[in-house]
Amino acid sequence: MDTAALDLLTAREERFPGHVDIICEGSVPRSVFVLIEGMAIRYRDLPDGSRQIITFLIPGDMCDLHVFLLKTMDHSIATLTPVRIAPVSRDSMMDLFIHHPRVSAALWWSSLQEEAMLRERIVSLGRRDARGRVAYLLCELLWRHMAVGLTNGRSFTLPLTQTELGDTLGLSAVHVNRILQDFRKQGLIVMERHKLNLIDLSGLQIIADFNESYLHFGGAPEELADYFDGLERVRQK
Length: 237
Hints:
The chain is of the alpha+beta class. A hairpin with a 2-residue loop joins strand 10 (189-192) and strand 11 (195-198). The chain starts with a helix and ends with a helix. It has two domains: 1-99, Jelly Rolls (Sandwich); 129-237, Arc Repressor Mutant, subunit A (Orthogonal Bundle), CATH 1.10.10. 45% of the residues lie in helices and 20% in strands. A four-stranded antiparallel beta sheet has the order 1-8-3-6.
């Protein structure tokens, strides 16, 4: 039943080309959406013309689960590549929360994971040096792509320019280029035509002081699963 509800939720799709806004800061949110294919970003434009990329969206991510509580968007969402998204209306989301508690819990978990990534980003920007920031982001993106089956070993598609990496990590494109060149020379990475291969993942994780536990890939506690199993049995009586 839950699987059928999710399939129905993502039945309608919209397509956007690369490097366009899906929704802009100040706009009225029209729907939640699930990213089906491609890569997107959350970002803020600053008065001086610079940009801060806040986070990346990859296939399977649900964007702005609680957006219906806002009158206007406080950030923009843009595509990095051509994307397919599944928009989800407010009524559909409310129905899901009411009638599918297990799915609701999974969506809460997803929101908590996103908050954990934002906390780690704050730590990285505040306390890691430039090499550590770059290494941390590459490691995080690898682990996230691994979780949704979008890697080939330790290789995955990374359609980011050095400017976009800099906009994420508070570094200039020139500084990012130097660090990536250094990583290549050390045999840590190979990057060709937007394909990134983390040859020495352990080495990069040491540089970044990276521990993937903050991504919470282990899921929810077993007792929570037992709780929802009990709810399911009650509903079926």
